[in-house]
Amino acid sequence: MSEPLVIVGNGMAAMRLVEELSARALGRFAIAVVGEEPRLAYNRVLLSSVLAREVAHDEIELKPAAWWRARGVTLLYGHRVTGIDADIHRVWLAGGATLPYARLVLATGSRPIRLGVPGMDLPGVMTFRDLGDVAAIEAAATKHTKAVVIGGGLLGLEAAYGLARAGAEVAVVHLMDRLMERQLDARAAAMLEQELKARGIVVHLEAETAAIRGASRVEAVALKDGRDLAADLVVVAAGIRPNVDLARAAALDIGRGIMVDDHMQTSKAGIHAIGECAEHRGICYGLVEPAYEQARVLAAHLTGEAARYDGSVLATNLKVSGVSVFSAGDFLGAPGTEQIVLSDAGLRSYKKLVIANGRLVGAVLFGDTADGLWYLDLIRSGASIETFRDDIVFGRALAERATVKTLAA
Ligand SMILES: Cc1cc2nc3c(=O)[nH]c(=O)nc-3n(C[C@H](O)[C@H](O)[C@H](O)COP(=O)(O)OP(=O)(O)OC[C@H]3O[C@@H](n4cnc5c(N)ncnc54)[C@H](O)[C@@H]3O)c2cc1C
The pTM is what? Predict the structure, then answer.
Protein backbone atom coordinates (compact mmCIF):
# COMPACT_ATOMS: atom_id res chain seq x y z
CA MET A 1 0.00 0.00 0.00
CA SER A 2 1.17 3.54 -0.77
CA GLU A 3 2.33 5.50 2.25
CA PRO A 4 0.49 8.83 2.72
CA LEU A 5 2.89 11.73 2.14
CA VAL A 6 1.56 15.24 2.69
CA ILE A 7 3.36 18.31 1.33
CA VAL A 8 2.39 21.67 2.84
CA GLY A 9 2.80 24.46 0.29
CA ASN A 10 2.23 24.26 -3.47
CA GLY A 11 5.24 26.27 -4.53
CA MET A 12 8.37 25.57 -6.51
CA ALA A 13 9.99 23.16 -4.02
CA ALA A 14 6.78 21.12 -3.72
CA MET A 15 6.49 20.69 -7.48
CA ARG A 16 10.10 19.59 -7.79
CA LEU A 17 9.71 17.10 -4.94
CA VAL A 18 6.69 15.49 -6.63
CA GLU A 19 8.65 15.35 -9.90
CA GLU A 20 11.68 13.75 -8.25
CA LEU A 21 9.60 11.27 -6.23
CA SER A 22 7.49 10.15 -9.16
CA ALA A 23 10.55 9.71 -11.37
CA ARG A 24 12.06 7.39 -8.76
CA ALA A 25 9.11 5.50 -7.33
CA LEU A 26 5.74 6.33 -8.88
CA GLY A 27 2.99 4.97 -6.63
CA ARG A 28 5.23 4.35 -3.62
CA PHE A 29 3.63 7.33 -1.88
CA ALA A 30 0.04 8.57 -1.96
CA ILE A 31 0.91 12.26 -2.25
CA ALA A 32 -1.34 15.13 -1.19
CA VAL A 33 -0.21 18.74 -1.76
CA VAL A 34 -1.98 21.41 0.27
CA GLY A 35 -1.38 25.00 -0.83
CA GLU A 36 -2.78 28.29 0.35
CA GLU A 37 -2.56 30.06 -2.99
CA PRO A 38 -5.72 29.44 -5.04
CA ARG A 39 -3.94 28.10 -8.13
CA LEU A 40 -1.58 25.46 -9.48
CA ALA A 41 2.09 25.91 -8.60
CA TYR A 42 3.75 28.54 -10.77
CA ASN A 43 7.22 29.83 -11.47
CA ARG A 44 7.60 32.54 -8.85
CA VAL A 45 10.90 33.66 -10.39
CA LEU A 46 8.94 34.86 -13.43
CA LEU A 47 6.72 37.21 -11.41
CA SER A 48 9.15 40.01 -12.26
CA SER A 49 8.70 39.30 -15.96
CA VAL A 50 4.91 39.25 -15.46
CA LEU A 51 5.09 42.65 -13.75
CA ALA A 52 7.28 43.96 -16.58
CA ARG A 53 4.62 42.66 -19.03
CA GLU A 54 7.13 40.40 -20.74
CA VAL A 55 5.22 37.24 -19.80
CA ALA A 56 1.45 36.75 -19.35
CA HIS A 57 -0.09 35.71 -16.01
CA ASP A 58 -1.20 32.34 -17.39
CA GLU A 59 2.19 31.47 -18.89
CA ILE A 60 4.01 30.79 -15.65
CA GLU A 61 2.25 27.64 -14.45
CA LEU A 62 4.93 25.04 -13.72
CA LYS A 63 2.89 21.98 -14.72
CA PRO A 64 -0.66 21.57 -16.06
CA ALA A 65 -3.39 19.90 -13.98
CA ALA A 66 -3.02 16.72 -16.09
CA TRP A 67 0.62 16.37 -14.97
CA TRP A 68 -0.42 16.26 -11.32
CA ARG A 69 -3.29 13.89 -12.10
CA ALA A 70 -0.98 11.53 -13.99
CA ARG A 71 1.12 11.23 -10.84
CA GLY A 72 -1.92 10.47 -8.70
CA VAL A 73 -1.41 13.60 -6.61
CA THR A 74 -4.33 14.92 -4.55
CA LEU A 75 -4.07 18.67 -5.03
CA LEU A 76 -5.76 20.85 -2.45
CA TYR A 77 -4.98 24.37 -3.52
CA GLY A 78 -6.69 27.34 -1.94
CA HIS A 79 -6.40 25.50 1.41
CA ARG A 80 -4.29 26.54 4.35
CA VAL A 81 -2.81 24.06 6.79
CA THR A 82 -3.41 25.42 10.28
CA GLY A 83 -1.87 22.79 12.52
CA ILE A 84 0.23 19.65 12.79
CA ASP A 85 -0.22 16.96 15.40
CA ALA A 86 3.08 15.10 15.25
CA ASP A 87 1.93 12.54 17.85
CA ILE A 88 -0.96 11.20 15.78
CA HIS A 89 0.59 12.10 12.38
CA ARG A 90 -2.18 14.40 11.13
CA VAL A 91 -2.40 17.90 9.70
CA TRP A 92 -5.35 20.25 10.17
CA LEU A 93 -6.75 22.39 7.38
CA ALA A 94 -8.59 25.69 7.81
CA GLY A 95 -12.23 24.66 8.02
CA GLY A 96 -11.51 21.69 10.23
CA ALA A 97 -10.68 18.86 7.79
CA THR A 98 -7.67 16.69 8.66
CA LEU A 99 -5.25 14.58 6.65
CA PRO A 100 -3.20 11.66 7.95
CA TYR A 101 0.46 11.31 6.97
CA ALA A 102 3.26 8.83 7.30
CA ARG A 103 5.67 11.48 5.96
CA LEU A 104 5.09 15.21 6.14
CA VAL A 105 7.10 17.73 4.08
CA LEU A 106 6.96 21.41 4.93
CA ALA A 107 7.59 23.53 1.82
CA THR A 108 5.97 26.72 3.04
CA GLY A 109 8.45 29.20 1.53
CA SER A 110 8.89 32.70 2.94
CA ARG A 111 6.92 35.86 3.39
CA PRO A 112 8.05 39.44 2.81
CA ILE A 113 9.42 41.27 5.83
CA ARG A 114 7.15 44.10 6.91
CA LEU A 115 8.94 47.21 8.11
CA GLY A 116 8.42 48.24 11.69
CA VAL A 117 7.57 51.83 10.75
CA PRO A 118 4.31 53.77 11.04
CA GLY A 119 2.07 53.65 7.96
CA MET A 120 2.85 50.09 6.77
CA ASP A 121 -0.87 49.26 6.78
CA LEU A 122 -1.97 52.21 4.66
CA PRO A 123 -3.77 51.33 1.44
CA GLY A 124 -1.28 51.55 -1.44
CA VAL A 125 1.55 49.86 0.50
CA MET A 126 2.27 46.49 -1.08
CA THR A 127 4.67 43.59 -1.12
CA PHE A 128 5.96 41.51 -4.05
CA ARG A 129 5.77 37.79 -3.40
CA ASP A 130 2.89 36.18 -5.25
CA LEU A 131 0.55 36.55 -8.21
CA GLY A 132 -1.98 38.30 -5.97
CA ASP A 133 0.64 40.97 -5.19
CA VAL A 134 1.45 41.38 -8.88
CA ALA A 135 -2.24 41.88 -9.71
CA ALA A 136 -2.53 44.50 -6.95
CA ILE A 137 0.61 46.37 -8.09
CA GLU A 138 -0.55 46.29 -11.72
CA ALA A 139 -3.94 47.71 -10.77
CA ALA A 140 -2.29 50.54 -8.82
CA ALA A 141 0.51 51.39 -11.27
CA THR A 142 -0.69 53.46 -14.17
CA LYS A 143 1.12 56.09 -16.18
CA HIS A 144 2.73 58.78 -14.02
CA THR A 145 1.93 56.98 -10.77
CA LYS A 146 4.59 57.97 -8.27
CA ALA A 147 5.98 54.70 -7.00
CA VAL A 148 8.57 54.23 -4.27
CA VAL A 149 10.23 50.85 -3.90
CA ILE A 150 11.79 50.24 -0.51
CA GLY A 151 14.75 47.88 -0.96
CA GLY A 152 17.47 47.88 -3.62
CA GLY A 153 18.08 44.13 -3.69
CA LEU A 154 17.17 41.78 -6.53
CA LEU A 155 13.43 41.83 -5.84
CA GLY A 156 13.20 45.57 -5.28
CA LEU A 157 15.05 46.35 -8.50
CA GLU A 158 12.93 43.95 -10.50
CA ALA A 159 9.81 45.54 -9.03
CA ALA A 160 11.19 49.00 -9.87
CA TYR A 161 11.89 47.96 -13.44
CA GLY A 162 8.39 46.47 -13.85
CA LEU A 163 6.80 49.64 -12.49
CA ALA A 164 8.93 51.85 -14.77
CA ARG A 165 7.84 49.72 -17.75
CA ALA A 166 4.22 50.38 -16.75
CA GLY A 167 4.93 54.11 -17.02
CA ALA A 168 5.26 54.89 -13.30
CA GLU A 169 7.77 57.42 -11.97
CA VAL A 170 9.92 55.20 -9.80
CA ALA A 171 12.30 55.88 -6.91
CA VAL A 172 14.24 53.15 -5.08
CA VAL A 173 15.14 53.68 -1.42
CA HIS A 174 18.03 51.49 -0.24
CA LEU A 175 19.59 51.32 3.20
CA MET A 176 23.10 50.33 2.07
CA ASP A 177 25.74 52.31 0.16
CA ARG A 178 25.30 50.23 -3.00
CA LEU A 179 22.58 48.29 -4.77
CA MET A 180 22.37 44.47 -4.49
CA GLU A 181 25.20 44.39 -1.97
CA ARG A 182 24.59 40.69 -1.36
CA GLN A 183 25.42 39.89 -4.97
CA LEU A 184 27.54 42.73 -6.37
CA ASP A 185 30.81 44.44 -5.56
CA ALA A 186 30.99 48.23 -5.51
CA ARG A 187 31.99 48.59 -9.15
CA ALA A 188 29.27 46.37 -10.61
CA ALA A 189 26.72 48.01 -8.30
CA ALA A 190 27.72 51.48 -9.54
CA MET A 191 27.36 50.32 -13.16
CA LEU A 192 23.94 48.90 -12.36
CA GLU A 193 22.88 52.18 -10.76
CA GLN A 194 23.83 54.01 -13.97
CA GLU A 195 21.76 51.60 -16.07
CA LEU A 196 18.72 52.04 -13.83
CA LYS A 197 19.08 55.82 -13.94
CA ALA A 198 19.16 55.59 -17.73
CA ARG A 199 15.77 53.84 -17.48
CA GLY A 200 14.37 56.76 -15.46
CA ILE A 201 14.62 55.07 -12.06
CA VAL A 202 15.85 57.36 -9.26
CA VAL A 203 18.06 55.64 -6.68
CA HIS A 204 18.47 56.89 -3.08
CA LEU A 205 21.32 55.06 -1.33
CA GLU A 206 22.04 55.07 2.42
CA ALA A 207 18.44 56.10 2.85
CA GLU A 208 16.39 54.74 5.71
CA THR A 209 12.61 54.81 5.84
CA ALA A 210 11.27 56.52 8.96
CA ALA A 211 7.56 56.33 8.15
CA ILE A 212 5.05 55.92 5.41
CA ARG A 213 2.65 58.83 5.50
CA GLY A 214 -0.86 59.45 4.25
CA ALA A 215 -4.32 60.44 5.48
CA SER A 216 -6.53 57.67 4.06
CA ARG A 217 -3.95 56.10 1.74
CA VAL A 218 -0.22 56.39 1.09
CA GLU A 219 1.00 59.85 0.10
CA ALA A 220 4.73 59.85 0.89
CA VAL A 221 7.69 57.95 2.23
CA ALA A 222 9.47 59.89 4.95
CA LEU A 223 13.21 59.24 5.21
CA LYS A 224 15.22 59.48 8.42
CA ASP A 225 17.35 62.28 6.91
CA GLY A 226 14.20 64.45 6.77
CA ARG A 227 13.35 64.05 3.09
CA ASP A 228 9.82 63.18 1.99
CA LEU A 229 9.37 61.24 -1.27
CA ALA A 230 5.90 61.68 -2.77
CA ALA A 231 4.24 58.30 -3.39
CA ASP A 232 0.91 57.01 -4.70
CA LEU A 233 2.20 53.47 -4.38
CA VAL A 234 4.88 51.88 -2.19
CA VAL A 235 6.34 48.43 -2.79
CA VAL A 236 8.21 47.07 0.21
CA ALA A 237 10.94 44.64 -0.86
CA ALA A 238 13.09 44.70 2.24
CA GLY A 239 13.80 40.99 2.51
CA ILE A 240 12.03 37.76 3.31
CA ARG A 241 11.45 35.65 6.40
CA PRO A 242 10.93 31.86 6.29
CA ASN A 243 7.35 30.73 7.02
CA VAL A 244 7.90 28.80 10.25
CA ASP A 245 4.67 29.37 12.19
CA LEU A 246 3.27 25.88 11.63
CA ALA A 247 6.58 24.24 12.51
CA ARG A 248 7.01 26.38 15.61
CA ALA A 249 3.51 25.54 16.83
CA ALA A 250 4.35 21.84 16.36
CA ALA A 251 7.46 22.34 18.54
CA LEU A 252 9.99 21.65 15.77
CA ASP A 253 13.45 23.20 16.24
CA ILE A 254 13.53 26.65 14.67
CA GLY A 255 16.44 28.99 14.06
CA ARG A 256 15.70 31.55 11.40
CA GLY A 257 14.07 28.74 9.42
CA ILE A 258 12.96 25.18 10.20
CA MET A 259 16.16 23.40 11.15
CA VAL A 260 17.01 20.35 9.01
CA ASP A 261 19.91 17.91 8.76
CA ASP A 262 21.65 16.73 5.58
CA HIS A 263 18.60 14.55 4.74
CA MET A 264 16.22 17.50 5.09
CA GLN A 265 14.91 15.87 8.28
CA THR A 266 13.56 18.23 10.94
CA SER A 267 13.92 17.67 14.66
CA LYS A 268 10.81 15.40 14.61
CA ALA A 269 10.81 11.96 13.00
CA GLY A 270 8.72 11.75 9.82
CA ILE A 271 8.68 15.52 9.25
CA HIS A 272 10.94 17.11 6.61
CA ALA A 273 11.38 20.64 5.33
CA ILE A 274 12.71 21.93 1.99
CA GLY A 275 12.98 25.22 0.15
CA GLU A 276 12.98 28.70 1.59
CA CYS A 277 11.35 27.66 4.88
CA ALA A 278 14.27 25.34 5.73
CA GLU A 279 17.49 26.22 7.54
CA HIS A 280 20.44 23.94 6.74
CA ARG A 281 23.77 24.36 8.55
CA GLY A 282 22.71 27.84 9.62
CA ILE A 283 21.69 28.98 6.13
CA CYS A 284 18.22 29.81 4.80
CA TYR A 285 18.43 30.08 1.03
CA GLY A 286 16.28 32.60 -0.80
CA LEU A 287 16.73 31.18 -4.29
CA VAL A 288 15.14 28.40 -6.26
CA GLU A 289 18.19 26.30 -7.16
CA PRO A 290 18.93 25.27 -3.54
CA ALA A 291 15.22 24.40 -3.13
CA TYR A 292 15.47 22.10 -6.16
CA GLU A 293 18.67 20.46 -4.87
CA GLN A 294 17.01 19.91 -1.50
CA ALA A 295 13.94 18.36 -3.22
CA ARG A 296 16.21 15.96 -5.12
CA VAL A 297 18.08 14.91 -1.98
CA LEU A 298 14.85 14.41 -0.03
CA ALA A 299 13.27 12.34 -2.83
CA ALA A 300 16.38 10.18 -3.00
CA HIS A 301 16.42 9.75 0.77
CA LEU A 302 12.72 8.89 0.96
CA THR A 303 13.09 6.23 -1.73
CA GLY A 304 16.05 4.61 -0.06
CA GLU A 305 18.94 6.02 -2.12
CA ALA A 306 22.05 7.32 -0.42
CA ALA A 307 22.00 11.10 -0.79
CA ARG A 308 23.11 14.03 1.30
CA TYR A 309 22.66 17.76 0.98
CA ASP A 310 25.92 19.60 1.57
CA GLY A 311 24.66 23.13 0.90
CA SER A 312 24.53 25.15 -2.32
CA VAL A 313 26.75 27.63 -4.13
CA LEU A 314 24.56 30.63 -4.81
CA ALA A 315 24.24 32.28 -8.20
CA THR A 316 21.96 35.12 -9.24
CA ASN A 317 20.81 36.79 -12.42
CA LEU A 318 18.93 40.08 -12.42
CA LYS A 319 15.89 40.01 -14.69
CA VAL A 320 15.92 43.57 -16.02
CA SER A 321 15.97 43.44 -19.79
CA GLY A 322 19.04 44.99 -21.35
CA VAL A 323 20.95 44.81 -18.06
CA SER A 324 22.82 41.54 -17.71
CA VAL A 325 24.19 40.87 -14.26
CA PHE A 326 25.48 37.57 -12.90
CA SER A 327 27.03 36.81 -9.56
CA ALA A 328 28.11 33.56 -7.91
CA GLY A 329 30.11 32.25 -4.97
CA ASP A 330 32.62 34.43 -3.11
CA PHE A 331 32.19 37.44 -5.38
CA LEU A 332 33.86 39.90 -2.99
CA GLY A 333 37.00 37.83 -2.48
CA ALA A 334 37.93 36.73 1.05
CA PRO A 335 41.44 37.55 2.34
CA GLY A 336 44.03 35.36 0.60
CA THR A 337 42.10 35.11 -2.68
CA GLU A 338 43.33 36.56 -5.98
CA GLN A 339 41.27 38.47 -8.49
CA ILE A 340 41.26 38.78 -12.27
CA VAL A 341 39.41 41.87 -13.48
CA LEU A 342 38.48 42.81 -17.03
CA SER A 343 36.67 46.07 -17.50
CA ASP A 344 35.61 48.01 -20.60
CA ALA A 345 33.77 51.21 -19.77
CA GLY A 346 32.97 51.79 -23.46
CA LEU A 347 31.18 48.46 -23.75
CA ARG A 348 29.75 48.90 -20.24
CA SER A 349 31.18 45.53 -19.39
CA TYR A 350 32.92 44.31 -16.23
CA LYS A 351 34.12 40.88 -15.15
CA LYS A 352 35.69 39.93 -11.86
CA LEU A 353 36.82 36.39 -11.14
CA VAL A 354 37.95 35.36 -7.67
CA ILE A 355 40.51 32.57 -7.42
CA ALA A 356 41.77 30.59 -4.44
CA ASN A 357 44.34 27.78 -4.59
CA GLY A 358 44.17 27.51 -8.37
CA ARG A 359 40.37 27.22 -8.36
CA LEU A 360 37.59 29.62 -9.26
CA VAL A 361 35.58 30.50 -6.13
CA GLY A 362 33.52 33.50 -7.18
CA ALA A 363 32.47 35.67 -10.12
CA VAL A 364 30.70 38.94 -10.85
CA LEU A 365 29.77 39.69 -14.45
CA PHE A 366 28.18 42.87 -15.70
CA GLY A 367 27.24 43.40 -19.34
CA ASP A 368 28.42 40.17 -20.94
CA THR A 369 27.10 37.31 -18.81
CA ALA A 370 27.18 34.61 -21.49
CA ASP A 371 29.79 32.57 -19.59
CA GLY A 372 28.05 32.81 -16.21
CA LEU A 373 26.91 29.20 -16.10
CA TRP A 374 30.34 27.95 -17.15
CA TYR A 375 31.92 29.92 -14.31
CA LEU A 376 29.27 28.55 -11.95
CA ASP A 377 30.06 24.98 -13.00
CA LEU A 378 33.76 25.64 -12.34
CA ILE A 379 32.97 27.06 -8.91
CA ARG A 380 30.68 24.15 -8.02
CA SER A 381 33.04 21.44 -9.27
CA GLY A 382 36.12 22.98 -7.64
CA ALA A 383 38.12 21.91 -10.73
CA SER A 384 41.64 23.29 -11.19
CA ILE A 385 41.80 26.21 -13.64
CA GLU A 386 45.61 26.26 -13.90
CA THR A 387 45.76 25.09 -17.54
CA PHE A 388 43.57 27.97 -18.75
CA ARG A 389 44.01 30.59 -16.05
CA ASP A 390 45.54 33.09 -18.52
CA ASP A 391 42.41 33.00 -20.65
CA ILE A 392 39.63 32.25 -18.20
CA VAL A 393 38.48 35.85 -18.01
CA PHE A 394 37.96 35.93 -21.80
CA GLY A 395 35.37 33.19 -21.57
CA ARG A 396 34.90 29.51 -22.23
CA ALA A 397 35.64 29.44 -25.98
CA LEU A 398 39.08 31.03 -25.64
CA ALA A 399 40.00 29.23 -22.45
CA GLU A 400 39.15 25.81 -23.88
CA ARG A 401 41.12 26.53 -27.07
CA ALA A 402 44.08 27.48 -24.88
CA THR A 403 43.77 24.22 -22.92
CA VAL A 404 43.76 22.14 -26.11
CA LYS A 405 46.92 23.97 -27.30
CA THR A 406 48.64 23.42 -23.94
CA LEU A 407 47.82 19.71 -23.97
CA ALA A 408 48.97 19.34 -27.59
CA ALA A 409 52.31 21.09 -26.95
C1 LIG B 1 9.51 38.40 -7.67
C2 LIG B 1 10.44 37.27 -7.35
C3 LIG B 1 11.56 37.05 -8.16
C4 LIG B 1 12.43 36.01 -7.86
N5 LIG B 1 13.51 35.82 -8.66
C6 LIG B 1 14.34 34.80 -8.41
C7 LIG B 1 15.47 34.53 -9.25
O8 LIG B 1 15.72 35.24 -10.22
N9 LIG B 1 16.24 33.46 -8.98
C10 LIG B 1 15.96 32.63 -7.93
O11 LIG B 1 16.69 31.65 -7.74
N12 LIG B 1 14.94 32.87 -7.08
C13 LIG B 1 14.12 33.92 -7.30
N14 LIG B 1 13.06 34.14 -6.47
C15 LIG B 1 12.90 33.27 -5.29
C16 LIG B 1 12.17 31.97 -5.66
O17 LIG B 1 10.93 32.26 -6.22
C18 LIG B 1 12.02 31.13 -4.39
O19 LIG B 1 13.30 30.80 -3.92
C20 LIG B 1 11.21 29.85 -4.60
O21 LIG B 1 9.91 30.13 -5.03
C22 LIG B 1 11.19 29.05 -3.28
O23 LIG B 1 10.34 27.95 -3.41
P24 LIG B 1 9.55 27.38 -2.15
O25 LIG B 1 8.74 26.25 -2.68
O26 LIG B 1 10.46 27.18 -1.02
O27 LIG B 1 8.57 28.58 -1.72
P28 LIG B 1 7.35 29.19 -2.50
O29 LIG B 1 7.53 29.09 -3.97
O30 LIG B 1 7.12 30.54 -1.91
O31 LIG B 1 6.11 28.27 -2.11
C32 LIG B 1 5.61 28.19 -0.80
C33 LIG B 1 4.11 28.03 -0.89
O34 LIG B 1 3.64 27.57 0.37
C35 LIG B 1 2.38 28.16 0.63
N36 LIG B 1 2.12 28.08 2.08
C37 LIG B 1 2.76 28.71 3.08
N38 LIG B 1 2.22 28.38 4.28
C39 LIG B 1 1.20 27.53 4.00
C40 LIG B 1 0.22 26.85 4.83
N41 LIG B 1 0.23 26.97 6.16
N42 LIG B 1 -0.69 26.08 4.21
C43 LIG B 1 -0.70 25.92 2.86
N44 LIG B 1 0.18 26.56 2.04
C45 LIG B 1 1.11 27.33 2.60
C46 LIG B 1 2.58 29.58 0.12
O47 LIG B 1 1.32 30.20 -0.11
C48 LIG B 1 3.36 29.31 -1.18
O49 LIG B 1 2.50 29.15 -2.26
C50 LIG B 1 12.18 35.18 -6.73
C51 LIG B 1 11.08 35.43 -5.91
C52 LIG B 1 10.21 36.45 -6.21
C53 LIG B 1 9.03 36.72 -5.31
Answer: 0.94
